[in-house]
Every structure is written in structure tokens, then in C-alpha cells.
Automatic annotation (TrEMBL):
<dbReference type="InterPro" id="IPR014001">
    <property type="entry name" value="Helicase_ATP-bd"/>
</dbReference>
<dbReference type="Pfam" id="PF00270">
    <property type="entry name" value="DEAD"/>
</dbReference>
<dbReference type="Pfam" id="PF19833">
    <property type="entry name" value="RecG_dom3_C"/>
</dbReference>
<keyword id="KW-0347">Helicase</keyword>
<dbReference type="InterPro" id="IPR047112">
    <property type="entry name" value="RecG/Mfd"/>
</dbReference>
<keyword id="KW-0067">ATP-binding</keyword>
<keyword id="KW-0238">DNA-binding</keyword>
<feature type="domain" description="Helicase ATP-binding">
    <location>
        <begin position="289"/>
        <end position="450"/>
    </location>
</feature>
<keyword id="KW-0413">Isomerase</keyword>
<dbReference type="InterPro" id="IPR027417">
    <property type="entry name" value="P-loop_NTPase"/>
</dbReference>
<keyword id="KW-0234">DNA repair</keyword>
<keyword id="KW-0378">Hydrolase</keyword>
<feature type="domain" description="Helicase C-terminal">
    <location>
        <begin position="469"/>
        <end position="628"/>
    </location>
</feature>
<comment type="similarity">
    <text>Belongs to the helicase family. RecG subfamily.</text>
</comment>
<keyword id="KW-0547">Nucleotide-binding</keyword>
<dbReference type="InterPro" id="IPR011545">
    <property type="entry name" value="DEAD/DEAH_box_helicase_dom"/>
</dbReference>
<dbReference type="InterPro" id="IPR012340">
    <property type="entry name" value="NA-bd_OB-fold"/>
</dbReference>
Amino acid sequence: MRPSVLDPLFVPITSLAGVGPKVGTLIERVVPADLGDRPARAADLLFVLPNTVIDRRNRPGIALSAEGQIVTLEVRVDRHQPPPRGNRSVPYRVYAHDDTGEIALTFFHAHAAYLQKMLPEGERVVISGRMEWFNGRPTMVHPDHIAPIDEAEGLPLVEPVYPLTAGLSAKVLRRAIGQALGRLPEFPEWQDDAFMRRHTFPSFGDALARIHNPKDPLDVAVEGSAWRRLAYDEFLAGQVSLALVRAKIRRLSGRPLVGDGRIVEKLREALPYKLTPSQEFALGEINADLADPERMLRLLQGDVGSGKTVVALLAMGRAVEAGGQAALMAPTEILARQHLSTIAPLAEKAGLRVAILTGREKGRERSETLEGLTSGAIDIVVGTHALFQETVTFHDLVLAVVDEQHRFGVHQRLAITAKGDAPDMLVMTATPIPRTLVLTAFGDMDVSKLTEKPAGRQPIRTVTLPLERLDELVERMRDAVAEGQKIYWICPLVEESEEIKLMSAEDRFASLKPLFGDRIGLVHGRMKGAEKDEAMRAFKQGETRILIATTVIEVGVDVPDATIMVIEHAERFGLAQLHQLRGRVGRGDRSSSCVLLYKDPLGETAKRRLSVMRETEDGFRIAEEDLKLRGEGELLGTRQSGTPGFQVARIEFHADLLEAARDDARLILSRDPELQSERGQALRLLLYLFGRDEAVRLLRAG
Ligand code: ADP
Ligand code: MG
């Protein structure tokens, strides 16, 4: 049951004054919470934070107010001048003065009675708005605020400006938020005292008050202590709930997987190379997890080409030694097949029975695989989403490896988990996710990193080239092909579209075909499975030397002797994607290059992206730069578009807090796993406020 102290905030917004069903729907659009099916509540309004402020502290007096300035004036009303009867096009004017001069307040389509009431002749009032000078005369058109002098205190001198949506007036929204704030009870503090002091955090209530009723523009700054306090609250709520979920998942298992080495030894013998030190290290960590009765939830992070697949294979070998089955899931069919072709020859030497299951396996082949999985005759299965289907049952799935995790949702992760008796889970990602994002995406997962590439890799030379100089490139490609090199050529779209005139893969193929004849192949997302396989096979075996491709090859494809990567319209790709694509070359011992073909003129961000690509091959640096560039992009745009999954926290500004929140959550739960202590009880409130109450339910379920 929700603690009753929260009740005043957990009412639908439509129960607030001035918020009917229509306004309610509009407000729901600006509420940052992911509402799902539920109606917005007063609590959600607390986190509708201002984009910026209007500073009304400037009070220069009428004569000294500059054109266009927002000013606040203290004036005496002199006289009203209504428009001539029947002529609505002339505005209603009210003249007023202060010590420095006279001003005309101008109202269009005014209600005379209202103006008489707000601006009684002879009275002193405070007005605030934008100053305009017409023919040397100061005016203010529709002042934003008008108040009698004795109510001037209530005027927001630093006025928060909230995100708006068409049809929703700022006043109505402000009033609703004000009511939500008014319903805020006195909460017990859920944050640690010393931590609060160190960061000069105000209390939750004070932070909200400061942001919604700022006294200074700094009060609403994203980097300011009020906003940071709320961001930390949100991070902590997220980290505590992830940790609770994880603890729950771990409680489900309790099966140590220990092997005798007979399979792993054979696999190692079959490898044509030695594992790198970080591969060995990661494997050590994984084996320790497998042997532990707690369930493994580990992220294997390694830049493109760092050799994650073999680590997964050895882990799966260990799982089979321990008497279970293992599954390796890939996000695309091409990748699943590639994994199979890597794994199958090695597995065969170790006596492992391996099968593949994708949407393409049909008929007898499929039913045999399904039977083999159910009976346990198959040790390792490689597949795609097809593995999640209900018809798939395992004899005893003990290890699930998920490759390129960012393409799979949490749902799918859970679906595969359900296929076994809480199998150990290894998630592999090639995207060098900065630590901060790992935390938001995966929570408190353990992380193993492959920090170096296999020995003998040559650096990749990266150049940028405007599309106009395509001819030079084609010349160089002729030479390269004559030398027996292999070239990827990536195009962004499959078909020519009217709006986006990008050269499509098919067009590019058609234009290069006359020059390269049989040496050029094509693969794209709309081709049939068998055609894709054939194109990949021909390229891998060297029958074709140039492969024109859409980004279907982006993830994981391994053709070690490909040496040139051409990316057309590189300016259209994100940094992470460019890095992924470039990682398809430079895998063998020959030196490789990457050509980023771009279309002039380049935008500022695109320019920066391409130069980052030229400067570095370090995936982590690239990921950090990516985050920065995106952060800046957001700064330039609206501030509203926050970090996905968060209401107030902004990863570009608050990343430092995220790590602290993770550690804090760990500590809290190690001392108080059921959140029973005084602080634990307060933290439950926090979980509710940020919509993490699912986790509280887990607590009760035990
Ligand atoms: P990724 O981490 O991008 O998934 P892969 O697992 O596809 O990388 O490996 C990239 C290439 O490196 C493959 O050709 C693989 O055979 C090779 N490889 C993996 N480990 C080593 C190693 N220790 N020494 C040499 N080559 C290796
Ligand atoms: Mg891979």
C-alpha cells in the first residue's frame, strides 16, 4: 500500500482547480513522466521543470527602459482611452506615469470592465512586460503582469517559463503546478546528510520550491544545486529499483556451474590464436560467476573487433561441461549465421552439438532443432528473436548470451530468461557505452571489458572526401581490387526517395557495376535471406571484392581480410554507427583504411563528428564525444528533450551523480535490503514519487 503521506499528490490532475478533462489532456503532453495508460497525477507536475526564466528584476523607470527589454515598472494610472465605439481595430489605451515619464499601456480587443478593475484611475500599480517605443513614445502592449502596489510582492520577478504545447496557456499550467507544490507534504529526508552537505543540496521540497519559484535565474540552472538534487533523487530511485529487481532475480537461482575443462580445453586447442590478456581476464570473471550459486548478470563490453565471440563460446563450453545448454542470441539473421560459422568448426572439434534457429529455418530442419533443444541433444543454439517463441523449449538452458544487446529490449531479455530455470546471463555489446550509460541502461550489472585488440592489428587510416571527388576514389579502388583487397561500400538507404535524395545501395551498385563487373556484390535489408547469405559468402570467399551494402552489415560482420571501408553520406551517420562500421575493417594483419564520403556543405555537428573519426579509433573516446555532441545539440534545441527514461536528470549534466547513486544504492541495500529502516521507509516514498513503485511491490512479494 502506498504510504498515505503521498495521497495529496497522487490525485489525478483533473481534480486540481482549473484543470478539466481538456486542459488535463494538454498538460499530460508536457508532463515528462512516461504515463503509459495511467492519467497524470499532481505528483507528475512537480517534475515539469522550466526551460528558462523571464527576468523581471530590471526596474529602470519608464524613460530609461530600452526597446525590447523586459521591465517592471511602478506607475500611477492617469486615464483610460477606450477605442471609439464600434471600431475594434483601435486599441484600448491606458496612460500612466512615473517620475521619469509617461507610458501608454495598449490592449487589443480589451474588456473595458476588466481594465477598469485592474487599472483604476489614480491608483498606483506594478506592471511588468516588454517595453516598446513607437515614434519616440514608450508603450507596453498587453503587460504580462498587473498588480496593485500592495500586492507587488506576489509578482514573480524571476518567472519560470515552462514547456508548452499548443492550446495550453502558461498561466493555466503555472497555476496547476502551483497547486501541486501546495500539496507537497513535509517529507522525511531520504538522502544521506553528509552527502547532502558535501553537494550543498537543498531538501526535496526546497529544491522544488527554488526551481518553481526562483529568486534568481541560477535557481533553475540544470547545473544548479536544486536541479542536481532532484536529478540525484531520480538516479537514486532508478538505481535502488534496479538493484531490488536484480536482487530478486538473483534469489531465483542458486545453481553453481562448474566444468571439468574437457570441452573448454578442446576449444582452446582448436583456436588458431592465443587469447588476449583481457579475453583471459574476462573469461576468468565469467567462470567465477558461473561457478557461483548466484545468478550471473554480466555485461561483456568490448570495442568492435576485440573478440567477444570467442569469449562467449568458451563460456558456453563451460556451461555445457556443467551439464546444461547454452543459447547465443544475435539481433540479425546475418549475424546469427556468422556466429554459427565461427562457432561450428571449433565446436565440432570439441564434440559440441550446435544448431541454428532463426525465422528462416522451416519444416523438418526446424522441428528437428526444436526436438533437439527439448531433449537436450543440442548443446548450443545460435539464433535470433525466433528463440523467444513459445514453441521453443529447452531441456536445461543454463546460460544465455545476448549479443549486441542494445538492439534487444528488456522484454526480450526477460523472455529468454523464462526459457530456463533462471539461466546465467551474459550480455555482449560492441558499442562502447560510456560507464554512465551502462548504468542507466543496465543498472547494476557486473562489467567485463575487453580493453585491447588482438595482437597484430594495424591502425585504420581514416580520410574524408567530398562526393565530388568520387572519381579519385574509384581510381584507387581499381588499384586496390587489382591487388586483391576487399572493399565495403556502405550506403544509407535502400531506395531512392523523393525527399531524401541519397544515393541508394541499388543505384550505387548499378553505377559501379560497369566498372567492376563480377567483382562487385550487393547486400541490403530487403533481400531474401538466401540472397543475403550468398552475397556475404561470395564476399567472404573473395569471389566479389567490393560489397555494396546498406547498414545491414553494421552489426558484427566479420570478414577479416576486408581492408577498405567506404561510407557514403557519412555526414548522415551518428558517431557510434560510423565507429561500428569502420570496425568492420582492420581485423586482419594488413593495413586498412576508411573513406568517409560526405556531401558539402557540412553542418557544424557533422563536421565535428567526421573530425573525431579522423582523430581517433578509441571507441570509448568516440562514445564520450558522441555524448558531448548530442548534449550540445540538445542545448541548442529545446531543453525539454531530456535523457530517455528520466524526468529531470540529464545525463550530459549529471553523469557524475549517476555513479554516486549507484554506489549509494548498493550501500543502502546491503545494510537494509528490505528498506525497513527509517531511511529505507523514506526511500520508498522516493520510489513512488519517481514512478519506481514496481520495485516496492517486489519487496513485499519477497
Ligand atoms: P567482436 O568483439 O567485434 O564481436 P569478433 O568476436 O567478431 O569481434 O572477433 C573479431 C575477429 O578477431 C575475428 O576474426 C576473431 O576470429 C578474431 N580474434 C578474436 N580473438 C582473437 C585473438 N585473441 N587473437 C587474434 N584474433 C582474434
Ligand atoms: Mg561481435
